[in-house]
Prior knowledge:
Rossmann fold, six-stranded parallel beta sheet, two-stranded antiparallel sheet, 8 strands, globular
Amino acid sequence: MVTRYTLLQELSAMVPDDVLVLTSIGNNSGFWGQLKDREANLFHLTMGMCSSTALGLSLALPNRKIVAVDSDGNLTLSLGVLGTIANEAPKNLTIVLMDNQNYLGSNKHAPGMPTATAGKMNLEAVAKGCGIESACTIEDAAAFRARIQAALASNGPHFIRARVEPLDTDGPKKSKRVPDPRENKYQFAGYIQKTEGVEILGSGLGGG
């Protein structure tokens, strides 16, 4: 298997600046924030909300590529979203699932409590069973690179399950401050407003 950090390095080298990237809580956000400092990032999406939020954005902004970097524990809390993604069939959405088969949390020295994928659950099979035809499992950087390139160049939705090491034994040097969730959501909304020509934040003055 490959490490989460290795795959996020690959993704950071391939994803264009205008692609919106959403990351779940934990090291998906922590690592991505160090690798790819950009306005088009939405960090720290909490349990069950990463792929769901990405789906909403993909439907609201159909001409914009959306990539969600989710995790096994996070996604299984809101597994029904896969059925909704299949039914809505957003062509611009790619889900990248980092499956380390445990709730790592803040424990750095041993795997945390196992997730359902440590047992019999196969999230690629679940995605396909829900109707997401472009679903796969990868276990190395070369296959990941090929799948990301194909996803960014074609219509989705795409579901890429990456089997990663149980522990994050490597990672980026912490040289940047990753915005906290409150700061980041306004930053992200402002970027969407600026690049899409839509009003999201408003004046705050209310109606006349």
